[in-house]
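Dear U.,

For the methods section draft, I wanted the exact inputs and outputs in one place so we can describe them consistently. I've listed the two proteins in the order they'll appear in the manuscript figures. Please don't edit the token lines directly; just add comments below if something needs changing.

First protein:
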Amino acid sequence: MKKITIAIDGFSSTGKSTLAKQLAKELEYVYVDTGAMYRAVAYFAMQHNLIGADFFKKEALIEALADIKLEFRFNAELGFAEMYLNGENVEKQIRTIEVSNFVSKVAAVSEVRAKLVEQQQEMGTNKAIVMDGRDIGTVVFPNAELKIFMTASAETRAQRRFDELQQKGDNVSYEEVLKNVVDRDYMDTHREDSPLVIADDAIEIDNSYLNKEEQFAAVLELVNDVVKTI
């Protein structure tokens, strides 16, 4: 079977990472969670007091980019790669609501995007990769053979995220999560550098009423259709 590049973009909490992991496992492709990379940079900024509720030391973060080393290390027990920041496993830390509140601001910084996009493009040199994020089909891999754009109502996404955080033991309210989802949507779609938009040749999937199995089956069929035509 010919190897292709699969780009999955979309709004926050649409299940992009879940779908990407399923596809990578089924196809034996490399999976890259670009959101985790931006979250790790946001976490670094929080650790070093470069961002907070009422401040953002953008220039200081830009100067510190050379000190940020990101890498994915495969966890055989979990079956997927985890994010490491400067040698430390930060997979759990970067999934908190606190990081979610800052990640869109950090991702809007052009210098941050340039650094991470360069790394992401290097990862996809040999194809056979599934990558999810906000600008994969428009900026990182504009020539990807298959582009998926995922969406769902803000309320549906907030409920999914709220349930996920509750299962992890995080003490958050649904209203707080919904506000985070709405705020991130606005920031992601209105930033000057690489805003979240659907690529002209992307296939849009609204999964408000789809379960994970139905969604996976539909996208896997799209993959097979694309592979047959190249």
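Second protein (the one for the lower panel):
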Amino acid sequence: MNTTNTGLPGGVAISHLSVYDWPAADGACGGTPHMHLACSEAYVVTGGRGAVQTLTSSGYEVTPLQAGTVAWFTPGTIHRLLNEGDLRITVLMQNSGLPEAGDAVLTLPPEYLTDPETYARATAIPADAPEEEQERVARARRDLALEGYRALREADGPQALATFHRAAAALVRPRIAEWRERWRQGAEASAAATGAQLDWLERGESPHLADAAVSSEQPAARGKFGMCGRLDVYAN
């Protein structure tokens, strides 16, 4: 039995992020506030400085970011990156494949969260459009998400946040079967492989060591317009 996992350790995904320096209505420069529903996210700051604003049922926080900072948060954390000077981050995402399959909902105003089609029209960046048009759309959806984000921050009590959570969960519900399969082939398979290896080692066996392998790759795409900035992304 070959238990070698050819993906990154633990079934994580990695990307390199240059956070947008576009100013918003509040004067701050940065990305699009959003929330993940099934994936934790970690930042390893490699350069520049900035901050991440977060909003959860526990309240609003600001975490400063500078080279060397490692910060992470769990599903349900609404987060907005602020660029205060050439902020660059290596991003680690739990459950490789799920974020790419839609495990993120932007904090759009409620009227854009009513159904998947309405949400998609407000958030999709046309892949075949010129770069200038892609940037225009990415910036417009960032500003639209900031409208909803400001309303959530200014709301009196937890009800507005709970309403957003319910709307986000309803939007992604049609994708869960696909997500589950990606998880089974990725993070679950990685954990199962470790379990099998521990079983062998406990019995004094080591067949998996003969399957040792070395892998490397370059980014599959560079400079993609992401939610928080320009992304270099990898296939695994």
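Candidate sentences for the figure legend, describing the second protein: The radius of gyration is 19 Å. Helices lie at 116-123, 131-154, 159-172, 176-202.

Thanks,
Y.
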